[in-house]
Amino acid sequence: MADRKPxxxxxxxxYEKSRLLELGSALQEAGVEILSTGSTAKxxxxxxxxxxxxxxxxxxxxxxxxxxxxxxxxxxxGILADQNNPxxxxxxxxxxxxxxxxxxxNLYPFAATIASGADFAECIEQIDxxxxxxxxxxxxxxxxVAVLCHxxxxxxxxxxxxxxxxTDEERKRLALDVFRTTAEYDLTIASWLGSTISYQMQDLDxxxxxxxxxxxxxxxxxxxxxxxxxxxxxxxxxxAVQSHGKEMSFNNYTDADAAWRAALxxxxxxxxxxxxxxxxxxxxxxxxxxxYTKAHACDPVSAFGGVIAANRTVTVAxxxxxxxxxxxxxxxxxxxxxxxxILMKKPSxxxxxxxxxxxxxxxxRPVSGGALVQETDLISAAGDDA
Length: 386
Description:
Layout: E1 9-14, H1 20-29, E2 33-36, H2 38-46, E3 52-53, H3 54-58, H4 73-80, H5 86-94, E4 102-106, H6 110-115, H7 120-125, H8 130-140, E5 146-148, H9 154-163, H10 168-195, E6 212-217, E7 227-231, E8 241-244, H11 250-264, E9 270-275, E10 278-284, H12 288-298, E11 306-310, H13 316-322, E12 327-332, H14 337-343, E13 350-353, E14 362-367, E15 370-375
Parallel strand pairs: 1-2, 1-4, 2-3, 4-5, 11-12, 12-13
Antiparallel strand pairs: 6-7, 8-13, 9-10, 9-11, 14-15
Helix pairs in contact: 8-10, 12-13, 13-14
């Protein structure tokens, strides 16, 4: 296509290297000059792929354990030069700097580091500085530079090499992915650092949320509404494992979340039954079967076709009772093997397993132009009856 821009020079510096040689080989086969850093350059060179070390190109060594290696004008000028601007091209030519057509960066795994339980100092060291700087520069200059920030994009890049380069639209989409990725990265860092500092609700003058699309739903609250479910962390109803039944709907999720939160609000064995966002019954008991009996007795008519949540392992005794009533969804931390056998005889029931976790300390409700934020109301909250 006429708007494809050839790739002649690439900067490659990646943490995740499982597909590095595949991409590097494709670049070399296409005659692309490759500049790289540290372990990335060593990996490429070790496979016989021609590569120039960035430190050799800049004349400045990597220092401070790699904290400074690409933060250099010869690197960033080549990334940021608008190749359609004669003044930019003249400026870098005077300094013997060649522009880049492709930048390939993936970032230090900060989210994985904090999830591993690493200490504060280790987490700080996994905050990438040079990577986001190069990504953002290339994304800003996407009219001249294609930028890759995920290994999942390598197939597209290899195809582009064979087709004469990326189109304008492809470079724009790649740039968009960069800004989304770096925004998520920065927000993860800010959220983690904030979690290490003690503060009160009234001190919370800023917060951010990250949600990634997990799955498209058949429809939303009503059949004419499109919908999807997004994942925002490792815990909660979105991460429940479904072992039986039809696909979860939008309304199934809203009812399951309400029931699950109600059940987890109690330390004693508790069952909550929700239908159309309304509680049909919530009860505690001597065991989980007793709790279900009491919850169902609150409103047995409305409980028909409801969603059930239990904060204990579902036993055979409870499963037997549940199997006698049409139920849309049941969610619990665990199920006895024989209890699962009983429930799975009901073809329509959706069976979810979800680990017991702490309820989020904050509740957020979108409103026009913003959001309302409040502390989560728990049974043990100050002001509740003893």
